[in-house]
Amino acid sequence: MNEQSSIPEIADIVRHWMPDASEDELREATINLREYLAVIYRIFLRLEAENRLDEICVISDMDGRVNESNNK
């Protein structure tokens, strides 16, 4: 059972967000989304490797938009 599922050329969520876009625009938006998510993932991995993930909560605490009960 080595059946590999192919990654769709256009992400379903991009189609949802951009219902009136052309196929080329959807492809470009999908590429941009995937690149953005890759950057976010690399940032996460870096913070995790440096044991700095908890700093994210500190920043949001300073922000004033996060309720105290959400940080437990």
Structure, explained:
The chain is mainly alpha-helical and 72 residues long. The protein has one domain. It is 58% helix and 0% strand. It is built from 3 helices and no strands. The longest helix has 27 residues, at 23-49. The protein starts with 11 loop residues before the first helix and ends in a 9-residue tail after the last helix. The model has no long low-confidence stretch (mean pLDDT 83).
Main attributes of the structure:
single chain; 72 residues; mainly alpha; 3 helices; 58% helix
Q: DSSP helix count?
A: 3
Give the fraction of residues assigned to helices. Answer: 55-70%
Average pLDDT, rounded to a whole number, is 83
Which structural category do the helix and sheet elements fall into? mainly alpha
* Helix and strand run: HHH
Give the tally of structural domains. 1
Low-confidence stretches: none
Radius of gyration: 18 Å
What is this structure's SSE topology?
Elements (H helix, E strand, L loop, with lengths): L11 H6 L5 H27 L5 H9 L9
Produce a short descriptive summary.
By secondary structure, the chain is mainly alpha-helical.
